[in-house]
Amino acid sequence: METISLKDDQKEFSLPVVTGTENEKGIDISTLRSETGYITLDPGYGNTGSCQSSITYIDGEKGILRYRGIPIEELALNSNFIEVADLLIWGSLATREMGERFTNMLTDNALLHESLKHHFEGFPFDAHPMAMLSAMVNALSCYHPVLTKPHNPKEIEKAAAILISKIRTIAAFSYKMSRGEPFIYPKARYSYAENLLHMMFSLPHEHYEVHPEIKRAIDIILILHADHEQNCSTSTVRMVASSGANLFASISAGIAALWGPLHGGANQAVIEMLEKIHSGNLGVKKCIEMAKDKESGFRLMGFGHRVYKNFDPRAQILKELSAKVFDVLKHKDPLLDIARELEDVALRDPYFVERKLYPNIDFYSGIIFRAVGVPTNMYPVFFAIGRLPGWIAHWREATATNRLQIARPRQIYTGPAKQSYIPVDQRSHT
Ligand code: ACO
């Protein structure tokens, strides 16, 4: 067995090395504290493996992303979102019969319980749809108390179908709420992406016809978002799952984590940045200068990634897809030109080159959503719908054990040393 030695002033310790399928190496420190008294310190977990996982493989240096071993480029070209969801959750591509069965389950679960629908009335009209999504997904556990036995594949399949189908209905209904429009119900014969757009954009008196290329583009976007191993929201799902929390509660927490502008909220932030440039409030040059100036607190949104240090394969697919969508819609958007200019300038600037900062998936996804007519605050919602199968797969993997181990990191305490309590009339604020 391969080991690594660790030495302090008095002793040498030997730690086992764990090797993954693609020869990636990790030092197993699970006995470090008990044997040495030390812990490791790694804020942001950039050097910490939290688990072993067989779901997704990423090589950030080479720009590789594979779901269950299959390259993302092949899935984007040949597969569809529901097949990818099945693949991520169950580990292999479904047969035709299995695929049809799961699709039928999604159709059967597309509606929301009538009482659940009333929850929407409790939200203000301008509520952010991510807040509604997180709350409504958590509320699903009140209406569907499945998963009494988390290892039972039938129950997981049922819960997965409920979630994957209903999240789309919740998303569309929250959009309708924000517009003061009546809810539109899903149609059984529509594909997943088609139904999402139909429920968002159709009106009782006016049917929204979804162009096949747009339907396909949204499907591809969902595929590209479907999993990304131990990112912030997925780690959140696994962390919450480790306490024994049910699937709905764990996913609700993942949605909250995804909402942040450094994660799934970045696609909205990209468009807001491009709009500022377009309105003349911020020039491309000024934007680049500000991004380089640490004092400004500004970052070039849609640029950089914790893992990809060469290129983000998803961003490359989306860049091509955005051109196709614009072609189909005969759409011209000055923001696309600004995005291309920004990308061009940044990729030639030593600041970005030296730090290996490239466009990430969010840089182009927002531009496509905008062309389709999706409002900016719904972008992270589309991201959440896409990421859902990955979250479910990770929840399943994290809980598939008889000995659930609660995730509980340690810390290095830096606060005051022991001090006595001071009664209130003896305190001074000097
Ligand atoms: N603009 C300007 N500078 C940046 C950017 C950026 N977008 N991203 C990173 N940097 C700089 C940092 O300031 C740092 O510089 P320094 O070495 O001089 O201190 C260096 O590049 C490394 O950055 P880190 O913060 O260490 O990178 P990290 O891996 O922690 O962060 C992150 C990755 C959060 C994605 C970051 O690049 C970022 O904030 N990007 C903008 C937001 C964004 O697009 N998020 C979407 C991520 S993808 C997703 O969630 C699907």
CATH topology of the largest domain: Citrate Synthase, domain 1
For CATH, the homologous superfamily of the largest domain is named as Citrate Synthase, domain 1
Count of discrete structural domains? 3
- Per CATH, the class of the largest domain reads Mainly Alpha
What is the global morphology? globular
Quick synopsis:
This protein has 430 residues and is mainly alpha-helical. Helices cover 51% and strands 6% of the residues.
Structure notes:
It is a single chain. This protein is mostly helical and 430 residues long. The protein has three domains: 3-49, Rubrerythrin, domain 2 (Single Sheet); 70-263, Citrate Synthase, domain 1, CATH 1.10.580; 265-372, Cytochrome P450-Terp, domain 2 (Cytochrome p450-Terp, domain 2, Orthogonal Bundle). The chain has helices at 32-36, 72-78, 81-90, 96-108, 114-118, 129-143, 153-179, 192-201, 212-225, 232-241, 247-258, 266-278, 284-292, 313-328, 334-348, 350-354, 361-372, 379-399, and strands spanning 3-7, 12-19, 25-27, 56-59, 64-67, 70-71. A three-stranded antiparallel sheet has the order 1-2-3. The chain has a three-stranded antiparallel sheet with strand order 4-5-6. Strand 5 (64-67) and strand 6 (70-71) form a beta hairpin. The longest helix is centred in the middle third of the chain and has 27 residues, at 153-179. The relative contact order is 0.13. Bound molecules: acetyl coenzyme *A. Acetyl coenzyme *A binds at residues 44, 262-264, 266, 291, 299-306, 355, 357, 360-362. It comes from Candidatus Scalindua japonica. Pathway: Carbohydrate metabolism; tricarboxylic acid cycle; isocitrate from oxaloacetate: step 1/2. This is Citrate synthase. Keywords: Transferase, Tricarboxylic acid cycle.
